[in-house]
Write a structure and sequence with these properties.
Strands 2, 4, 5, 6, 9, 10 and 11 form a 7-stranded mixed β-sheet that branches. A 4-stranded antiparallel β-sheet has the order 1-3-8-7, with no helix packed on it. It is mostly beta strands and about 120 residues long. Helices cover about 0% and strands about 50% of the residues. A hairpin with a 4-residue loop joins strand 7 and strand 8. The protein is built from no helices and 11 strands.
Amino acid sequence: QVQLVESGGGLVQPGGSLRLSCAVSRFPFSSYAMRWYRQAPGKERELVAGIGSAGSDTNYADSVKDRFTISRDNAKNTVYLQMKNLKPEDTAVYYCNARTVLRDYWGQGTQVTVSS
C-alpha cells in the first residue's frame, strides 16, 4: 500500500534549523502535489506548506513564510521541509500528505520540539 515515512524531527533550540524528509512509496509521486501539515498539542492540524507536482509552485502558511522552504526530488520520491529560525510555537508533530481525488494519505509524523 501507499507509504509516507517522515524523518528528521528532533529537539532544537530557538533560532535553530531542521530539515524534515518524507519518503513516499507505491504512489505516483511525480504526478501529485505534496503538503506538510503540523499539529500541536490541543490544536487542530494545520497546513504548513505545499508544493506542486513539478516543484515550481509553492505556498506557505503566513506563520512560516520566509523561515520554511518546501522542496521535492521526484527522482527520489521525497519531499522536504527546510525549517530555519525555529520558534517555540513551531513545536508540533509534522506530517506529510498526498491527496488524490479519492483520499488523503498521511505519514506517521515526526516530532519537532523547539525549546531551550
